[in-house]
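User: Before I run my own analysis I want an independent prediction to cross-check against. Here's the chain; please return only the C-alpha cells and, at the end, one sentence I can use as a sanity check.
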Amino acid sequence: MGPNQASPDSHPDPARRRWMAVLARATAAELGALVRAAGPPAYTVLRGPEGGLVMVRGRAGGGGAPFNLGEMTVTRCTVRTDAGQVGHAYVAGRDGTVAELAALVDAMMQDADRSPALDAQIIAPLEARQKARQAERAGKAEATSVQFFAMQTMRT
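Assistant: C-alpha cells:
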C-alpha cells in the first residue's frame, strides 16, 4: 500500500462503505422493489444520472507495480431528500436507474432514525442475495476445476 492509500479498514464510516458496496452491486429490479416497499421520501436529483469512464488500475501478482488496466464505464448520481440528506452513488455500467436508486438509499440511510429499519429492509436482503449468487458461482467454478494432484497419482 502506498503512502497516499488508506487501508480499507480505516474508512471513516465503515457502515456507509458496506451499504454503498451492496447498493453498487444491486440490480435495478431488486433495488427498485425494495425501495418501493420501504416507502421512499420525496427527493430531488441534484446531479445525473450521468455516465462516464474511469481508469481501472491493476497490480501484477496483486502486489507488484501498478499499471493502467483499461477504462470502465460508470454512472453517477446525487440526490437530496426533502429532509435534507444528500446521497451519492457511483455504479459500474450505464444503468441510471440503479445509480439514482442507490443515491436515494444512501440519503435515506443517513437518517439515523430510519437507518436500522432500512438496513433490515433493503441492505441485508440485497447482501444475502449477492452472497448466495457468489456462492453459486463459486460452486459452479469448483465443479469444473481439475485436480492435478489426483491426475499425477493416477499416472504412477
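Sanity check: Residues 12-47+77-155 form one domain.
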